[in-house]
Write a structure and sequence with these properties.
The chain is mainly α. It has 12 helices and 9 strands. The strands form 4 sheets. A 3-stranded antiparallel beta sheet has the order 5-6-7, with no helix packed on it. Strands 1-2 form a two-stranded antiparallel ribbon. It has a two-stranded antiparallel ribbon with strand order 3-4. The protein binds glycine.
């Protein structure tokens, strides 16, 4: 990857990682009174997250931050707060509260798989297995994929999205945990369908992809949150990079590694000098469009995941690149003053409205809950030998 030698942002040092981690963990602690018995909104409003009910696709990320902070400190208060969140997640899945979509991995890996792995919380394990079962209900045999949104089989919503790659680790985990191959088997089919259809010839990706509900044949790629159907949504590409790295950890299929490399290279080709992408990679730095800092944190975690697997010079390349991205985030995007924000990282973009997309337009140039989570995960990965929640 020649791009590395052209980069101007230096790699973050171990000392800087430790300092950034302290700042972030202090902010998590500061947020406990507001969010122990509540969820955090998907994005901030004027850089401050409101407290909300546990009914959004993003409700797993704040508990994930609590667990990362617990790992860093060993503090029982954080453990207690994490387990209160587990009870909320269990209630949600048992009562099917806003679970008629595919985002079970985003919800249950950082909250409940984490709680099971770290403190052996049996309710967390039960909630995560129930969530994996729920995700299997979203599988559509005609086409072989998990339907993202809408009612089962609904023609207007007969599609999958690149983001779903991050829901698959819950299934790989569920098979290892229960011994039942059905979870993994469905995940493998979904990943194959995604790679066959979502990745374009230039290694950019479609955000969403429709299939024919009767024949299962590929129909067309369109966007929901990117700028346009044929553009290059930054976070979608980031989900692809991180998702392939984690799938490769579980399965070691050469096509996953190759997809990781190709998606990463396409992403890097479009980055501004500070390594934080515009919300859609169709834009150049000079277009002055909002950034999506969360995409940078997600890609950094994907790089660090792949580095742990491949070893050698390639691992060093990935680690150094991740350190550069995290340096940029820590220096110029992370929150240092709690008076400015109750989040961890500024300048994320959830859904920016364009003339060509179908999103609502919210959370633009704000903190976003997953952006905070992945930033803390990236710092944690750089600081210690971390055992993944995914
Ligand atoms: N998975 C939805 C998003 O990335 O906004």
């Amino acid at each position: 990857m020649t791009i590395v030698s052209e980069l101007t942002v230096p790699p973050i040092s171990d000392g800087e990682v430790a300092a950034a981690l302290e700042v972030a963990v202090a902010q998590v602690r500061r947020n406990l009174p507001a969010f122990t018995y509540a969820s955090q909104n998907h994005s901030s409003v004027g850089n401050f997250y409101p407290a909300v009910a546990n009914d959004q696709w993003t409700a797993g990320f704040w508990p994930g931050e609590i667990w990362l902070a617990f790992e860093h400190t060993g503090d029982k208060v954080l453990r207690h707060a994490g387990q209160i969140q587990v009870q909320s997640m269990l209630h949600r899945i048992e009562n099917r509260i806003e679970t008629d979509h595919h985002d079970m991995g985003f919800l249950y890996s950082p909250s409940c798989v984490a709680a099971w792995k770290l403190v052996g919380d049996e309710d967390a394990r039960r909630a995560a297995i129930l969530a994996a079962d729920r995700l299997l209900e979203r599988f559509r045999p005609a086409g072989g994929f998990f339907q993202a949104w809408g009612r089962a089989g609904e023609a207007d919503e007969y599609r999958f999205i690149i983001d779903c790659l991050l829901n698959l680790p819950l299934l790989y985990w569920a098979t290892r945990e229960t011994g039942d191959p059905k979870y993994r088997d469905h995940a493998l089919v979904h990943a194959r369908t995604t790679l066959a259809n979502s990745v374009r010839a230039d290694d950019s990706t479609f955000h969403t992809f429709y299939m024919d509900p009767v024949t299962g044949a590929p129909v067309r790629g369109v966007t929901k949150q990117g700028y346009a159907d044929d553009s290059f949504w930054a976070r979608g590409q980031a989900w692809g990079v991180a998702g392939m790295a984690i799938s490769y950890r579980y399965e070691r299929l050469p096509e996953y590694r190759s997809a990781f490399e190709r998606l990463l290279a396409a992403y890097l080709r479009r980055l501004p000098a500070d390594l934080i992408p515009c919300w859609d990679l169709v834009f150049k730095e000079s277009d002055n469009e909002p950034r999506d800092s969360s995409a940078a944190s997600i890609v950094a975690c994907g790089l660090l995941e792949m580095a742990d697997i491949v070893g050698g010079a390639e691992a060093e390349t990935y680690r150094t690149l991740a350190r550069r991205m995290v340096k940029s985030l820590a220096d110029d995007y992370a929150v240092k003053d709690p008076g400015v924000s109750n989040g961890l990282v500024l300048h994320g973009t959830y859904s920016r409205k364009s003339p060509y997309n179908t999103c609502r337009g919210e959370g633009v140039d704000e903190c976003v809950s997953w952006g905070d989570y992945y930033y803390l995960e990236a710092l944690t990965r750089l600081h210690r030998n971390w055992s993944s929640y995914w």
